[in-house]
């Protein structure tokens, strides 16, 4: 459970840094997001999930 909470904490740190360091870029991205087809967003999300799982798998050595 502590690993899960550590992951959530890192996610919050990264999200916070984006808002703190590049708020205008984040706003532009939010305006552009509705123009991207749902299939492309879904595919990008699944690729990100798969890469994240692979990274954890290799880091943990499981």
UniProtKB/TrEMBL annotation:
InterPro entries: DUF2065. This is DUF2065 family protein. It holds the Pfam family DUF2065. PANTHER family: INNER MEMBRANE PROTEIN, INNER MEMBRANE PROTEIN-RELATED. It comes from Shinella zoogloeoides (Crabtreella saccharophila). Keywords: Membrane, Transmembrane, Transmembrane helix. The chain crosses the membrane at residues 6-22, 43-59.
């Amino acid at each position: 459970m502590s690993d899960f909470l550590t992951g959530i904490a890192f996610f919050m740190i990264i999200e916070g840094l984006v808002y703190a360091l590049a708020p205008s870029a984040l706003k532009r991205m939010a305006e552009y997001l509705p123009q991207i087809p749902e299939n492309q967003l879904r595919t990008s999300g699944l690729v990100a999930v798969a890469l994240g799982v692979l990274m954890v798998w290799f880091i943990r050595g499981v």
